[in-house]
């Protein structure tokens, strides 16, 4: 028998308790043990959660409870959760967590502290999709060439609506909040941070990269508007918020989370609404795709319980991030965001007069940026203005950043220019 305590009994915690009880037959048949939710820790004990579980407001009722074998951390946040998980491990308990922010900052410290105690974190990336297992187990014979994913359902819901219904970002964000997809403070989701945390976890498993969110390129979807959607449609692209990990030939790895134009023919472009989708390319297997719900009580609980079943089966004694030694000999290093090479789309609002296009081409040329395609949209409301939309050939991030600053300062520019990377 495996006895568990759940710290944080919100939507996911309540689903964990419910599924452990309602699917007890199949879970014990598969794990070889009964898995019993013993106690849940909550802030407000008076709230009815519709589950049959003893509740407490004191974390030590779980952490100091000798009967409990596994602590499930679903409280969220970084600092308090880190303390709770450390104490659980110090008290000899296994841990299962869905907390991507905690892992984005402390995964290697936790790996050291845990040593051989199991820490399961399948639920931390892409909710119900078993992507951690895919990387740690199913693809472990491969060097991972790339991971490209839609890992934030809120961003994907908003961008899908903007593509399909000609609505602007703010309007769809409000709808997402009303439907309960986006948080009241949506920065974490729409600013790209949630997706970046997930990317860092996957990058550790695939490449052994020990980076923090501050080290990588993170952008959100707040500045995307209907003109970007218009350009994307004209040229056969979808706009998605992507997390990208790519191994380069010089033993560096680039990690970035940002909106991107991707060709409609790519399977990732077909992942719509709140769903998540991840493409992983291994050097031997080729491209593999994973699709499913990235959030929601039962879907996330499904991943939490998969970890519990692993622990019940064999103590899950493989190391936390999946590898016993540093990967790739001396190890791979993180490519500086400035060194990234890709294609770009740029939107500018300008005064519509002679010489403006030449001025823009001049600035881009000075930074070694070559234009690939171009569209001009006259402004129907303000006749003296025009919106210019263009894409570039492959060029260096550092140069594009510098050119964007110069374009913003140019006397013909009437709005801050916007850039979106293109992932072919
Ligand atoms: N807030 C996330 C999303 C789900 O919108 O996909 C949990 O990581």
Brief sketch in words of this structure:
This protein has 14 helices and 18 strands. The protein has 424 residues and is of the alpha/beta class. It has 3 domains: 2-128 and 298-312, Rossmann fold; 135-292 and 328-334, Dihydrodipicolinate Reductase, domain 2 (2-Layer Sandwich), CATH 3.30.360; 340-422, Alpha-Beta Plaits (2-Layer Sandwich), CATH 3.30.70.
Tell me what the structure shows:
The chain has 424 residues and is of the alpha/beta class. It folds into three domains: 142 residues, NAD(P)-binding Rossmann-like Domain (Rossmann fold), CATH 3.40.50.720; 165 residues, 2-Layer Sandwich (Dihydrodipicolinate Reductase, domain 2); 83 residues, ACT domain (Alpha-Beta Plaits), CATH 3.30.70.260. Helices cover 36% and strands 26% of the residues. Strands 7, 8, 9, 10, 11, 12, 13, 14, 15, 16, 17 and 18 form a twelve-stranded mixed beta sheet that branches. Strand 4, helix 4 and strand 5 form a beta-alpha-beta unit. Helix 7 crosses helix 8. The longest helix has 18 residues. The chain is elongated. The relative contact order is 0.13. The mean pLDDT is 94. The structure holds L-homoserine. L-homoserine (HSE) binds next to helix 7.
List keywords for this structure.
12-stranded mixed sheet, Dihydrodipicolinate Reductase, domain 2, Rossmann fold, alpha/beta, Alpha-Beta Plaits, 424 residues, 14 helices, 3 domains, binds L-homoserine
């Amino acid at each position: 028998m495996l006895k568990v305590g759940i710290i944080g009994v919100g939507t996911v915690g309540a689903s964990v308790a419910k599924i452990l009880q309602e699917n007890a037959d199949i879970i014990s048949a598969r794990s070889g043990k009964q898995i019993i939710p013993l106690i849940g820790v909550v802030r407000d004990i008076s709230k009815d959660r519709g589950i049959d579980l003893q509740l407490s407001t004191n974390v030590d009722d779980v952490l100091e409870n000798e009967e409990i074998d596994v602590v499930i951390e679903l409280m969220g946040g970084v600092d308090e959760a880190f303390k709770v998980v450390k104490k659980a491990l110090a008290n000899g308990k296994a841990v299962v967590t869905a907390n991507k922010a905690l892992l984005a900052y402390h995964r290697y410290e936790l790996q050291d502290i845990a040593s051989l105690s199991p820490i399961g974190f399948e639920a931390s990336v892409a909710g119900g999709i078993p992507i951690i297992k895919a990387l740690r187990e199913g693809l472990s014979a491969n060097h991972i060439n790339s991971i490209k994913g839609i890992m934030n359902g809120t961003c994907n819901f908003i961008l899908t609506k903007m593509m399909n219904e000609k609505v602007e970002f703010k309007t769809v964000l409000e709808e997402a909040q009303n439907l309960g997809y986006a948080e009241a403070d949506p920065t974490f989701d729409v600013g790209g941070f949630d997706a970046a945390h997930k990317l860092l976890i996957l990058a550790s498993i695939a490449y052994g990269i020990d980076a923090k969110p501050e080290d990588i390129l993170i952008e959100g979807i707040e500045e995307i508007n209907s003109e970007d959607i218009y350009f994307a449609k004209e040229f056969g692209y979808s706009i998605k918020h992507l997390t990208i990990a790519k191994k380069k030939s010089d033993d560096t790895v680039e990690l970035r989370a940002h909106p991107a134009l991707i060709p409609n023919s790519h399977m990732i472009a077909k992942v719509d609404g709140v769903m998540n989708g991840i493409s992983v390319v291994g050097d031997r297997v080729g491209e593999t795709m994973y699709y499913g719900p990235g959030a929601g009580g039962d879907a996330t609980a499904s991943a939490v319980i998969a970890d519990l079943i692993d622990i019940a089966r064999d103590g899950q004694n493989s190391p936390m991030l999946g590898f016993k030694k540093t990967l790739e000999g001396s190890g791979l290093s993180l490519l500086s965001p400035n060194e990234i090479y890709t294609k770009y789309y740029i939107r500018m609002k300008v005064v519509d007069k002679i010489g403006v296009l030449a001025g823009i081409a001049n600035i881009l040329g000075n930074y070694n940026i070559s234009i690939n395609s171009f569209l001009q949209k006259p402004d129907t409301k303000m006749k003296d203005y025009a919106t210019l939309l263009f894409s570039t050939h492959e060029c260096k991030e550092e140069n594009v950043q510098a050119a964007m600053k110069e374009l913003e300062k140019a006397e013909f520019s009437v709005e801050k220019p916007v850039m979106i990377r293109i992932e072919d």
